[in-house]
Design a protein that fits this description.
Blueprint: H1 2-22, E1 24-27, E2 37-38, H2 55-58, H3 63-68, E3 76-81, E4 86-92, H4 103-107, E5 110-114, E6 120-123, E7 129-131, E8 135-139, E9 147-152, E10 159-167, E11 172-174, E12 183-187, H5 189-192, H6 203-211, E13 215-219, H7 228-234, E14 241-245, H8 247-250, H9 255-270, E15 277-280, H10 296-314, E16 320-323, H11 343-360
Length: 362
């Protein structure tokens, strides 16, 4: 009798889930015209995928940059709907779980919405997810008033397909990509999205929400070494501002290499654009009280970076700014392992850049 009750209960759950699945109308962002994929340059060339660089540029990149450029870091999709129930269904390329990354951040999606009063809120899905080959995130019993939604994609996964499901009678439309000139941010894993708890809290996504700026994330985990090929690609972008945040990876370079590569990048950008360029020192090491020498290499690299920036300014390069390490006030509770910021650290990062950009872009 107990087995019969259990079987009946499982059948009812299955029928309920099936009914929910059958009630959705599905929308594919790849079929939207014009494009609705925010957070990248070269949108026309990449519109058939969720990559951040077109294939013609990927071919010239160092292998790690090429591979990470296929991840959806900083990408988001905006849409308008009055649906009560919403489901995101997507697939990603297989990859190992990173030890310093929450699965929800590495491979999950994150949803925000702006209501009719203009207030933006985060929307939790209350663990209504399925992590099988096709991943689903389901959001139920939402307010029925029309809202402008923004779906942030996983920063450390290559998305191969994605659909958005809404109630059959609900209104739905994609919001075209922003035409505002972007703030282009080039950096390390910290820029790409390591290591808050979920995608919406990566510091570049947080910066986007708190400033309204169009942000292009060109973070490449462990691979921000300022190669000429990367700068050649970056200078193609008609940007409002360029941010170069290299030291968390480029500290491994010599002082001469840092100076040579910074000079090349600034020169290449200036040949095409007069937009402000912010070059960033690395943050101060949060655990230096008991690891006083942990940031020795970072200090040397910061010194080399500061020297070349000041030299370029003296040589007459206009609109070139330095982001000092002291301006990113990391605390001990802001890091996960003293290398990558957690949720607190990402908010600190975003607020520091908000303050800097406010001065630079006024």
């Amino acid at each position: 009798m107990l087995k019969l009750i259990q079987a009946t209960f499982c059948l009812l759950i299955g029928l309920t889930l099936q009914a929910h699945a059958q009630s959705f109308t599905w929308y594919n962002p790849m079929e939207a015209s014009p494009s609705c994929i925010n957070g990248r340059a070269w949108n026309e060339e990449t519109k058939a995928s969720y990559a951040r660089m077109p294939e013609r540029l990927q071919r010239n990149m160092p292998e790690k940059v090429r591979n990470f450029s296929k991840n959806a870091a900083g990408l988001s999709i905006m849409f308008i709907t009055n649906t009560r129930n919403l489901q995101i269904k997507y697939t990603i390329e297989p990859g190992a779980q990173m030890v310093n990354m929450a699965r929800l951040n590495q491979a999950g999606v994150d949803l925000y919405a702006t209501n009719k009063r203009g207030k933006t809120h985060w929307i939790g899905n209350h663990m209504q997810w399925n992590w099988k080959d096709t991943i689903t995130f389901t959001f139920r019993d939402l307010e029925t008033n029309t809202g402008v939604y923004e779906l942030f994609l996983p920063p450390y996964s290559t998305v191969t397909s994605l659909k958005i499901g809404c109630d059959k009678k609900a209104h739905f439309s994609f919001v075209p990509t922003s035409t505002d000139k972007p703030v282009v941010i080039y950096g390390s894993s910290i820029v790409q999205g390591a290591s808050p708890s979920r995608p919406g809290l990566t510091w570049t996504n947080t910066l986007k929400r708190i400033t309204g700026l169009n942000i292009v994330n060109l973070g490449f985990s462990g691979s921000c070494l300022m190669e000429p090929e990367v700068f050649d690609a970056i200078c193609e972008i008609d940007a409002r501002c360029f941010v170069i945040d290299p030291i968390p990876n480029s500290y491994r370079l010599t002082a001469n290499e840092i100076a040579t590569r910074i000079r090349y990048g600034v020169t290449q950008i200036r040949q095409r654009s007069n937009a402000p360029i912010i070059i960033s020192e690395s943050y101060l090491q949060a655990d230096r009280a008991f690891h006083p020498h942990a940031e020795d290499q970072l200090r040397k690299a910061n010194k080399a970076l500061c020297h070349i920036v000041k030299l370029l300014q003296k040589e007459g390069v206009k609109n070139l700014f330095l982001m000092k390490s002291k301006d990113i006030k990391m605390t001990e509770d802001a890091m996960i392992e003293a290398t990558h910021p957690n949720d607190i650290g990402c908010i600190i990062y975003a607020n520091a850049y908000k303050k800097k950009l406010k001065k630079v872009l006024r």
